[in-house]
Amino acid sequence: MKSILYATDYSEASVAALHCAQVLSRNLDLRLVLCHVYDVPTLLGTQLEGPFPHLRTDAYTTQRKKLKAFFEKNREDNHPVRELHVEPVENMSVLSGILSKASEWQTRLIVVGMKGESLVRGMIMGSTTKKLVDKAPCPVLAVPAKHHFTEIKNLVYATDFEVEDIKALEKVVILARAFGAAVHVVHVTEDTQYSGPSNLSWFRQMLESQVKYENLHFELLKSGDVANSLKDYTEHQEASLIGMLERSSKHNTNKWFRRDLVKQMASNKSIPLLSFNEQNLKTLFV
User: What angle (nearest 5°) sits at the alpha carbon of residue 138, between those of residues 133 and 141?
Assistant: First the structure.
């Protein structure tokens, strides 16, 4: 059975992400795996071995109890989970710990909390977050601390008219179907008179030939401020989240969908961000 992996640092900022993970686990019929990355410290500059044979076992037991207690205290009773697993992991690297559990549990979606301009426990909106998005074997959903996640009615996907976007939208549609939600496909450009309309028409035909879903909507926005335009559009649509594909360096020649756009959108603090990378596009939610 496939899984949703929820990673937490036990902070209040990660509670909203827990509620989101519960809703998605139920509607997508995926088991929910709770994860916390901890590090057993060293003593006197040496690894804890020899006279401390039970320290790692005790640490794991303690963290497992703490993780389960965190879930019991903060869970949303209206969204019961069919199958729950509590999986703390010892690792000096938060990133490596999350990725190891994602691989172990056949994870189809990683859900993390976000506070201010950073993800919980050191997931600073820079190198660590970029690595998580870049290396995750599945999409990553970052949920702002104060976001109230309920049923999904509208989703926004920001496209750059690339073939990879169609693959990402296949996943977005799977998510939308589970909730009966509308998918709003949007492109932001400074030029809506020349290449914009023709590219949108081509992309729409390509998408609709491969993805059969009646509740698809398309829009072309004119703006030089991509991040804020997407934020305003998403809020106008009352969307539950916005999805986008993290481009590799070979796409840096494109002006508006530059490599740091995911970072900019995540720092909005108000809209959950569903990020894909070009390596995990074959990983489906089902």
Answer: 60
The residue extents of the domains of the chain are: 3-144, 154-268
pTM: 0.86
> What mean pLDDT, rounded, does the chain reach?
83
The SS3 call for residue 92 is coil
Other Cβ atoms closer than 10 A to 155: 26
Tokens of 43: 């003593």
pLDDT digits (tens, 9 = 90+) for 100-111: 999 999 999 999
Per-residue pLDDT at 187 exceeds 60: yes
d(CA 282, CA 199): 24
Dist. CA 45–CA 180, nearest whole Å? 55
More confident residue, 286 or 172: 172
Distance (Å, rounded) from C-alpha 24 to C-alpha 56? Answer: 33
Q: For the domain 154-268, what is the CATH code? A: 3.40.50.620
Question: Nearest to residue 145, comparing CAs of 122, 115, 118?
Answer: 115
Radius of gyration (C-alpha) of the chain in whole angstroms: 20
Residue showing tokens 């104060």: 146
Please say if the pLDDT value at position 42 is more than 60: no
The values of phi and psi at residue 31, to 5°, are -70, 150
Q: Among residues 164, 96, 92, 106, which one has the least CA distance to residue 131?
A: 96
Is pLDDT at 70 greater than 70 in this prediction?
A: yes
**Residue in the block written with tokens 């305003």:** 232
Question: Could you read off the pLDDT of 144-174 as tens digits, one per residue?
Answer: 888 887 778 999 999 989 889 999 999 999 9
Residues 6 or more apart whose Cβ sits within 8 Å of residue 216: 173, 182, 183, 185, 207, 208
Which residue in this structure is represented by tokens 């296949």?
170
The region that residue 247 occupies, defined by phi over 0 for left and psi between -120 and 50 for alpha, beta otherwise, is beta
Q: Is the domain defined by 3-144 classed in CATH 3.40.50.620?
A: yes
